[in-house]
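Hey, weird one. I pasted the Glyoxylase I family protein sequence into the form twice and got a warning about non-standard characters only the second time. First submission, copied straight from the form history:
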Amino acid sequence: MLQLEKVHHIAIICSDYARSKAFYTEVLGLAIVREVYRAERDSYKLDLALQGQYVIELFSFPTPPPRPSRPEALGLRHLAFAVQDIEAAKAALTAKGVPCEEIRVDEFTGKRFTFFQDPDGLPLELYQQ
């Protein structure tokens, strides 16, 4: 039987590397583990960690094709980050110029959540623990 242990990382391809690097590090506060420029591919690879745990690979490529993302496109639906205080987290994003949807309540768990987007429109979620 296959025994998966945990999700190792999430890979994201961005359209503007500098803008996305700033968003994920300065706005969301993820720490840089490693940054590599791969000249043969004209591509950056940025490894990011959250609370010391490696979680995101941010890639750049010269001309990535657009991803249909709305309303319910096939593929990754969204990436969710757990927070202790949803209102404080939403206020912190809003203060940095990141618009968020209204806070809603998950009808099955009773937990509060909100959605926002990265610079390329990737849907991201804050989910209160």
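That's the output from the first submission. The warning seems to come from a hidden character in my clipboard, not from the data itself. Helices lie at 17-27, 86-95.
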